[in-house]
Amino acid sequence: MRTPTQLGIRAEAMLAELAAFTDGDGNLTRLYLSPAHRAAADRVASWMRDVGLDVGFDALGTVRGRLKPTAPGRAGNRRLLIGSHIDTVVNAGRYDGMLGVVAGILAIEEILARHVELPFGIDVLAFGEEEGVRFPSTLVSSSAVAGSLLPSDLDARDADGVVLRDALIAFGGNPDAVTSAAYAAEETLAYLEVHIEQGPVLEAAGLPLGVVTSIAGQSRFFVSVMGEAGHAGTVPMALRRDALAASAEMMLTIEEVARAGYAHQMVATVGRLAAKPGAVNVIPAEVVFTLDIRADADAPRLAAIAELEKRFQAIAIKRGVSVTLDKFYESPTTPCAPRLQEAFAGAVLDLGLAERRLASGAGHDGHAMHHLTDVGMLFVRCRGGISHNPAEFATVDDMGLAVEALIKAVERLAADAVSSGDST
Ligand SMILES: [Zn+2]
């Protein structure tokens, strides 16, 4: 039996080994279905075999390691899924995604070493495509596992014109067997994922672990503001219809509304703006800016959007411009199941740590897995909240605690399944 520190040291060594599989030159870049993805997937498969799992690849390239129930009961035909992704962004860190896969493998090794009685099986999944960097799609491999991938998703092309379907064949996958990658809902107990927080909340709270309450829903808009161009030297201030000044007021309103949604971890961002005609001596006539808004539940996010629409119109009327909002993306909130939050929270308390719950502002494979089964997530503190960056870092001690918490959460679910006589 390993201590949390020993588990963390082992996790760090495995992550260092995985980080060597890169398509990049001197940096970690591992895109879906690339040679580096193949090499990393093969290494993960060999680790899974080493701890005694039955290993296979599904049609989309997800590595699956299967553990049979160690104490089969009425719940024995169901499977607990534990996973994360092994693809990365360009010039990535070594923890995002990979930590969840490594944690799953180490947890299994310990569960077997400790002779934990499992009335259900466990499948560890190493998804290949979460980040959506190579192809204009995200969560392809977890969507296939959840049974929600559309055949047309395989027609996506990367920047070099390579079709996903062909890249999959080159990898060794089978685009015609996509439906076979899906689990049946009735055979699935839940999906658990350990992931670095990718934000600064746990570090600020001085806590190594956090229980995720939901994966934030998000809405994205193009906001178009139409005013009137005019000579910067001749049109008096009172007679202007300045689309950019109006947009500036709208942006401050966005900040105000998002700050008021603090209790729902609301965040809103204007990340891009274009003003026309874009000359130093011309009053801006037309502005288009983006709005990205997220919260821990759908209702407060939708209410904030309605409030913004109302206040944008008031600003537009006051300033003699017009405004329209064009939604181009929406993703509903993925709630984490209360029973799985309790399992992780109990595990965190067992470790003598304070319990902290927080929503995930970033998307995760759990968003796709929610179509199949209940989702539970555990966050691990990362230094400075930095991720998608080579500076991404989690300590050995924090990672060890995360693996131990995952083991304890599985033990709790096993005990629940035994005491209820089933797994439901
Ligand atoms: Zn990730």
Architecture overview:
- This protein is of the alpha/beta class.
- It folds into 2 domains: 4-215 and 334-420, Aminopeptidase (3-Layer(aba) Sandwich); 217-331, Alpha-Beta Plaits (2-Layer Sandwich).
- The protein has 11 helices and 14 strands.
- Strands 1, 2, 3, 4, 5, 6, 12, 13 and 14 form a 9-stranded mixed beta sheet that branches.
- A hairpin with a 5-residue loop joins β1 and β2.
- The longest helix is centred in the C-terminal third of the chain and has 25 residues, at 396-420.
- The chain is elongated, with a radius of gyration of 24 Å.
- The model has no long low-confidence stretch (mean pLDDT 95).
- Zinc ion binds at residues 85, 96-97, 130, 195, 364.
- Zinc ion binds next to loops.
Task: Fill in the keyword field for this structure.
424 residues, alpha/beta, Aminopeptidase, Alpha-Beta Plaits, 2 domains, nine-stranded mixed beta sheet, 11 helices, binds zinc ion
